[in-house]
Amino acid sequence: MHIPPHLWPATTTSGTDGLEIGGVLLSDIAEEFGTPAFVLDEDDFRARCRSWRAAFTGHDVFYAAKAFLCHQVATWLKDEGLGIDVCSAGELRTARRAGIPGSSVIFHGNNKSVAELAEAVDHGVSLVVVDSHDEIARLSDIATHRGTRQQVLVRVTPGVEAHTHAHITTGTDDQKFGFSLATGSAHRAISHALGAPGLELVGLHSHLGSQILRPDVFETAADRLVGLMADTARTHGTLLRRLDLGGGLGIAYLPDDEPLDVRDLAPTVIDRVRKACAWAGVPMPRLAVEPGRAIAGPTTVTLYTVGTIKRQPGLRTWVSVDGGLSDNMRPALYDASYTAALAGRATARSTDEPVTVCGRHCESGDIVVDSARLPSDLAVGDLLAVPASGAYHRSMANNYNSQPRPPVVAVRDGAARVIVRRETIDDVLRLDVR
Ligand SMILES: Cc1ncc(COP(=O)(O)O)c(C=O)c1O
Ligand SMILES: N[C@@H](CCCC[NH3+])C(=O)O
């Protein structure tokens, strides 16, 4: 079977016993750990971390925890020298438990609680990205109370359309995130932050959206943010020394998708900022980026078992698997498209008409792969693998229909180990008060 390398985890191979990742047969994983399960290629994850670090040498790479975080992933980030972008006390706690120092953490969110802000200050989080006037005042009070000053970035919406799904677009003017550049709101937030006694404003932040496939949008944003740095220097005499361009780099979900490579994007963006700074007469800032999907997404497949196959003359064929909406909300939320492949055996049979792979949940929108090319001898009990499942799958998994969430199994050098265990029905019921 052909395995497009840009779509599957780096160590995936296909043989007579089906697919193998990290030297472990997916059929062995299904037998030992059950399905549905997320199978994560640890070498691929670590290699992607290194590739981002190398591409942004001299700048900061904060992995966006929301894409997928667990204790082991946090330890890999630490090993590979990446920082972490967290947006909740839970993500911060995971980072802390793994021994990630505050100096490697950036804290996000449009409505961080007082307790979260206090924990961030107490843990010595390097940067808090402020997102509202309420928060500027609140964080300043918290820091002042503790006799310290918190370094902050102001989040700016630079009015750049990222050409991605509307629900994951965040850099246009009218957003719940950030302060709009076009309306003067960002300038006012900068003045407020500069005047807040408990804060030290060190730079700006913008995040244009997610699953972005075009480099020019990052360049446009860079130009506008450098313009705002120059305005700040002129108006306040303050030289901002940090510029965080967020995350958002897209990945391949389908064979024809052509994502950007960070090794190409990084020099383009760095050069653009340098030129914009020279033109505007401000010093080159230290940059930061916050990749989530581009690191975690391609490293993981979801492994399912086929439970039923429904063929109705004149209508499409429905292949039902043992997961669905509870482990992957993306098709329902963003019309996201995926592929699937037979995982547990090889077959000489060709593919005929595309079939729809659906989940087991009580929603007609519970689609896993709308139009899958699968062999004509596909049978109940077969294993299917869906690539590009590493970002915003396990982290957005849910218990709809009281479905326990799948485990994450990391594979490497011929060995498999559980890094997030499977939920049990008892786990799902444990919050019920009787
Ligand atoms: C502030 C911020 N940074 C980084 C990310 C990570 O985005 P992605 O996973 O698309 O790289 C997100 C999510 O879109 C975000 O909101
Ligand atoms: N959850 C989204 C990404 C959102 C990123 C958060 N700002 C997705 O699956 O594509």
From TrEMBL:
<dbReference type="InterPro" id="IPR000183">
    <property type="entry name" value="Orn/DAP/Arg_de-COase"/>
</dbReference>
<feature type="binding site">
    <location>
        <position position="363"/>
    </location>
    <ligand>
        <name>substrate</name>
    </ligand>
</feature>
<feature type="domain" description="Orn/DAP/Arg decarboxylase 2 C-terminal">
    <location>
        <begin position="298"/>
        <end position="390"/>
    </location>
</feature>
<keyword id="KW-0663">Pyridoxal phosphate</keyword>
<feature type="binding site">
    <location>
        <position position="392"/>
    </location>
    <ligand>
        <name>substrate</name>
    </ligand>
</feature>
<dbReference type="GO" id="GO:0008836">
    <property type="term" value="F:diaminopimelate decarboxylase activity"/>
</dbReference>
<keyword id="KW-0210">Decarboxylase</keyword>
<feature type="domain" description="Orn/DAP/Arg decarboxylase 2 N-terminal">
    <location>
        <begin position="43"/>
        <end position="296"/>
    </location>
</feature>
<dbReference type="Pfam" id="PF02784">
    <property type="entry name" value="Orn_Arg_deC_N"/>
</dbReference>
<dbReference type="GO" id="GO:0009089">
    <property type="term" value="P:lysine biosynthetic process via diaminopimelate"/>
</dbReference>
<feature type="binding site">
    <location>
        <position position="293"/>
    </location>
    <ligand>
        <name>substrate</name>
    </ligand>
</feature>
<dbReference type="InterPro" id="IPR022643">
    <property type="entry name" value="De-COase2_C"/>
</dbReference>
<dbReference type="Pfam" id="PF00278">
    <property type="entry name" value="Orn_DAP_Arg_deC"/>
</dbReference>
<comment type="function">
    <text>Specifically catalyzes the decarboxylation of meso-diaminopimelate (meso-DAP) to L-lysine.</text>
</comment>
<feature type="binding site">
    <location>
        <position position="334"/>
    </location>
    <ligand>
        <name>substrate</name>
    </ligand>
</feature>
<feature type="active site" description="Proton donor">
    <location>
        <position position="362"/>
    </location>
</feature>
<keyword id="KW-0028">Amino-acid biosynthesis</keyword>
<dbReference type="InterPro" id="IPR022644">
    <property type="entry name" value="De-COase2_N"/>
</dbReference>
<dbReference type="InterPro" id="IPR022657">
    <property type="entry name" value="De-COase2_CS"/>
</dbReference>
<feature type="binding site">
    <location>
        <position position="330"/>
    </location>
    <ligand>
        <name>substrate</name>
    </ligand>
</feature>
<protein>
    <recommendedName>
        <fullName>Diaminopimelate decarboxylase</fullName>
        <ecNumber>4.1.1.20</ecNumber>
    </recommendedName>
</protein>
<dbReference type="InterPro" id="IPR029066">
    <property type="entry name" value="PLP-binding_barrel"/>
</dbReference>
<keyword id="KW-0457">Lysine biosynthesis</keyword>
<comment type="subunit">
    <text>Homodimer.</text>
</comment>
<dbReference type="InterPro" id="IPR009006">
    <property type="entry name" value="Ala_racemase/Decarboxylase_C"/>
</dbReference>
<feature type="binding site">
    <location>
        <position position="248"/>
    </location>
    <ligand>
        <name>pyridoxal 5'-phosphate</name>
    </ligand>
</feature>
<feature type="modified residue" description="N6-(pyridoxal phosphate)lysine">
    <location>
        <position position="66"/>
    </location>
</feature>
<dbReference type="InterPro" id="IPR022653">
    <property type="entry name" value="De-COase2_pyr-phos_BS"/>
</dbReference>
<comment type="pathway">
    <text>Amino-acid biosynthesis; L-lysine biosynthesis via DAP pathway; L-lysine from DL-2,6-diaminopimelate: step 1/1.</text>
</comment>
<comment type="similarity">
    <text>Belongs to the Orn/Lys/Arg decarboxylase class-II family. LysA subfamily.</text>
</comment>
<feature type="binding site">
    <location>
        <position position="392"/>
    </location>
    <ligand>
        <name>pyridoxal 5'-phosphate</name>
    </ligand>
</feature>
<feature type="binding site">
    <location>
        <begin position="290"/>
        <end position="293"/>
    </location>
    <ligand>
        <name>pyridoxal 5'-phosphate</name>
    </ligand>
</feature>
<keyword id="KW-0456">Lyase</keyword>
<dbReference type="GO" id="GO:0030170">
    <property type="term" value="F:pyridoxal phosphate binding"/>
</dbReference>
<dbReference type="InterPro" id="IPR002986">
    <property type="entry name" value="DAP_deCOOHase_LysA"/>
</dbReference>
